[in-house]
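Translate sequence into structure tokens.
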Amino acid sequence: MTGVALRGPLRRIWGLMYRHLALYRRSWPRLLELMYWPVLQMCIWGFTASFLVGRAGGAAVATASALLGGVLLWEVALRSQMGVAISFLEELWSRNLGHVFVSPIRPWEMVSALIGISVLRMLTGVLPAILLAFLLYAFNLFDMGPVVVLFFANLMIMGWWVAFGVVSLILRHGAGAEALAWSVLFGLTPFSAVFYPVSVLPAAVQPIALALPSSHVFEGMRAALSGVVRWDHLAWAIGLNAVWMAAGIWLFAGQFRQARLRGALLSIGE
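Result follows.
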């Protein structure tokens, strides 16, 4: 009975995902674009790390590893956020939202499909960069051990709740808010302690940084590169993600309901 009950929702979620997957299957430029920025970032920061090691010798190896690990893990958050936001925008650009929601599809099914396609987009973009880091710079992200899976998961979830906040603004303000899909998470980079510890930030800014799961992930990453697992930072990251994700979904649900009442699902983007 449970299997029969799940068949309908799972089929609808897969249908929403397949619509996007079909675009990538038939368009190599789209696939290339997914890999382009992570690989480019890895090249730039990898050469920078190599320069530092060449100038400072062994003393800079730990710094170089932290730089490369930060670049790779931050791309997880960025690609996850853009995976949700851009997939939603593609529904807007194609004027497809109205067609989707005159069908039996429920909002939570669309949220699930957006998250599913986000995971696939993120893996397609980040895995080549991880391979490149190993081949060119002998940096293996997975040397940190199984804890790297928790880093991935927390940064993916952060990307999702940021994306749902952006999507909510698009539903509320229309096409004028579309640029936020590319800029919001970049704006959080200085507070996320990607390349430096939270302690270097001004005292007034540190509470903002510590309210973000990413800062705890990157503090944990630097400790893991030294062979220490900081479970306290991971616990904070998980707890903060739970709070922020709940807030993101709540905001999205409220703005989606208002958009339906206003008829904005048919007119948004025009």
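Note: Residues 61-93 form the longest helix (33 residues).
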